[in-house]
Write a sequence for this structure.
């Protein structure tokens, strides 16, 4: 069975790929608006780990909508969620038997509710799988430590291809770099360099 | 890392074992009150599939409490849930690094909420993992078809070692066989005979 996994090059989506590869023919798909070239980092990790890779082009209007949501809220959570649901809809149109993402049990964003999952499956005749949704933070950290080689650092210094990076770039272009610091809390990100 | 998985011999818990075996040293543990010998069927499947197997003895008082709940409700859901949470508490005391069960995204019972999972982890210093909780019914069915050999039939004809079987036996002994038919809806169960 062919499965497309939304892939950022981060530890969660890489671990999700390892969990699924015994059961599916996994293609790592990195969603992007064409705002930056960060998707190339995800492609590099995908190639190093031996997975098929595809780009998934998103609707630029959705980036503008997400930025507007983030400006109004003053924090990025709902804007990132908006992009994630759009990315799953686009991925569901690609003809895979199943689609997946790297959302964890303890993630605040993005989250896909049971009702949203069922709706996605029914409308697109595809299975939606969140292989890490039954794993808590500690369990994920332990598996990452034993199976992945990662680089950790603050969000702005790490080369990964998540929506946040492109939305940060868009906001910096439109509102200036200071706006990014106001809207996005500092937190550490990880980028996977290899699998063991 | 050592992981103990609550195991019935059914398709969900067997599939959960296959998903986890790449990442953990999995021991299949069948919880039982000592009411019937159905746990031997689970042991047989565990041995056929090449997994370590242990019995997990539950508190007989919990079976009595569950039967009382089922009699009052007129349906088995909350009684089975009561036993499942007790079984997880007992399993968490066994010294595994992680414990797991076969609950699916679409299961109505048993279910373990995010708060219950976190509480279990914090109190017992153990990871709780529900590897199928990100899989819907169709995805599970497809994986079962490609990876397991199963026997399907009505609940009373299938040899598996879930709590329901022992609670049915207890109710039949105390209230007569007709009570079982009144309290437990007819539904088909599967028992795994081998993995592919």
């Amino acid at each position: 069975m062919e499965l497309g996994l939304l892939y950022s090059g981060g530890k969660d989506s890489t671990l999700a790929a390892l969990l699924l590869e015994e059961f599916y023919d996994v293609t790592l798909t990195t969603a992007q608006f064409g705002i930056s070239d960060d998707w190339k980092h995800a492609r590099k990790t995908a190639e190093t780990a031996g997975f098929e890779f595809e780009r998934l082009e998103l609707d630029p209007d959705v980036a503008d909508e997400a930025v507007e949501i983030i400006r109004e809220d003053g924090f990025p959570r709902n804007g990132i969620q908006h992009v994630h649901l759009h990315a799953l809809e686009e991925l569901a149109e690609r003809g895979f038997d199943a689609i997946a993402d790297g959302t964890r049990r303890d993630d605040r964003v993005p989250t896909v509710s049971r009702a949203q999952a069922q709706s996605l499956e029914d409308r697109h005749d595809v299975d939606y799988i969140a292989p890490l949704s039954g794993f808590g933070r500690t369990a994920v950290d332990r598996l990452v430590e034993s199976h992945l080689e990662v680089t950790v650092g603050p969000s702005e210094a790490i080369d990964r291809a998540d929506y946040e990076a492109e939305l940060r770039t868009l906001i910096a272009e439109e509102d200036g770099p200071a706006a990014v610091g106001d809207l996005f809390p500092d937190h550490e990100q990880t980028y996977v360099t290899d699998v063991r």
In short: Chain B is about 45% helix and 20% strand.
